[in-house]
Amino acid sequence: MLNLVRTRTQPRSNRSMPLVAMDYADPKKKNNFVGKILMAAILTALCILMLKQSPDFNPPTSFSRHEPGVAHVLVTGGAGYIGSHAALRLLKDSYRVTIVDNLSRGNLGAVRILQELFPEPGRFQFIYADLGDAKVVHKIFSQNAFDAVMHFAAVAYVGESTLDPLKYYHNITSNTLTVLEAMATHGVPTLIYSSTCATYGEPEKMPITEETPQLPINPYGKAKKMAEEIILDFHKNSNMSVMILRYFNVIGSDPNGRLGEAPRPELREHGRISGACFDAARGIIPGLKVRGIDYKTADGTCIRDYIDVTDLVDAHVKALEKARPGKVGIYNVGTGRGRSVKEFVEACKTATGVPIKVDFLPRRPGDYAEVYSDPTKIRNELNWTAKYTDLQESLQIAWRWQKSHLNGYGLSVAVATS
């Protein structure tokens, strides 16, 4: 075995060696090198800290990447009446959901209910933002891996649209263009667009089919029709999956009482007839105002197709499931049966048990006499049929929510944005 320890056989020489032949470390240089490393580390740490504190810094999350077997759906206007019900259904069906809403018509309380029901990380998130800000919209799309968009966000009152049409063209038409541009830029493949029967106007023939000419008579319907046209024109040179759902008059609420309709007090005058009925039953307003009793209908009041929100949401989910690349589907979502306003009021009186006072007033600008759907196409192609067709039962379910939420969700915009 080799011995690696050297033993000396001769005494060490006392001759000095030239200094140039030795490689001595300069302690000043060494300290300077260490100082530079330390300074670089400090600067790096400071940069990371500043980035984390910046509103533009968003570390990767489960929402920012695609996950096999989990579809991530952006629900615009998801804090609103219909959008929140859609988000609830998607979450129950194991979709990943992001809501974007500016809370101008929606309720933060509905968002908090969804957060409580689905607290697991990576399931649900809410982003407070305005779709009218294109820069913000593109940032949201860049930071989230969306697989589909359900576009509900809109102002949606016929009467209000005649008083403030520009608000409707901005909020509906322009904002839809912004969303579509962001989808195209960031490669989101599927759009489910929430449209309306108001695009048909006042057809000469009933029931309304998907082939009925679209001749809207109010800014709300016109703005929605323009948005549809933008989507369809874009699709001609795109492989995007597009489903357009034109729905009719929405009523009802979540059968389990978790979500309901809570419009802002200042918008009650423009709201749905169901909300007005409940307000009258609760004594918030002295009575119900029925606008128009001289239409060419059996009892002189307007005839509408009332669709329960649970059925409407089901149609949107089925449309999402059936969406195919490069294909467009356009469907009416209704019961196929028209009910007069007087019939509706009587059903509401029975559902609430309150003898609601009714005042009959002149027609509202932009209204039409009779509108109800032919749902044959959606039944044949999406296997969808309305199930909650008992008007009184739908109103009873909604009334239960109203009675247990006398102040709506109990939150204001001031609280929501603070």
UniProtKB/TrEMBL annotation:
Record flagged with keyword Heme: no
GO molecular function: isomerase activity
Cofactors (names): NAD(+)
Pfam families, A to Z: GDP_Man_Dehyd
Keyword match Cell inner membrane: no
UniProt keyword list: Carbohydrate metabolism, Isomerase, Membrane, NAD, Transmembrane, Transmembrane helix
Record domain NAD(P)-binding: where: 74-389
InterPro entries, per the entry: NAD(P)-bd_dom (IPR016040), NAD(P)-bd_dom_sf (IPR036291), UDP_G4E (IPR005886)
Transmembrane segments: 33-51, 71-91
NCBIfam families: galE
Protein family according to the UniProt entry: Belongs to the NAD(P)-dependent epimerase/dehydratase family.
This protein's name: NAD(P)-binding domain-containing protein
Organism: Solanum stoloniferum
